[in-house]
Amino acid sequence: MTLVDEVEVEVDLEVEASVPVKKVPYGDIFEASRAGDVERLRYLLETGVNVNARDQWDSVALYYACLVGHLDAARMLLENGAICSEHTFDGDRCHYAALNLKVRKLLKAFEARPPPLEPLQAALRDTFLACMLLYYPISFYTCIDSRFRV
Fold first, then answer.
1. Which of 31, 51, 53, 140 is deepest in the core (most CB within 10 A)?
2. Model pTM?
């Protein structure tokens, strides 16, 4: 038996959603992510800030939210299109920087989802399905809806 075997490690897996350390009413997306200020993030994203923009250290906002462990801020960034694939530079950094297990699980869950459709792709999909509905009975459309969750 080694010394490592004798050490008991207690891990607290029940980490609640983080509360912002401070509010950043005039901060940019990086400051809001570091602070966990979800209201400021929501405002910035609604005004059209690029969720995958880089700062002077070549980091993205999702990296800072993961690094500090702000689950709600990370979820908001991911829902707005932040890149989290482990096969990309940004996604890989976020996975390694994730402070706790819940943030890691959140990243994995969003990585498993298909990327969101661009407006043109969404319009083409809707047009295709509408054409299929004209040429085939309703049962075909129901089949497509249940298989692909349109």
1. 51
2. 0.63
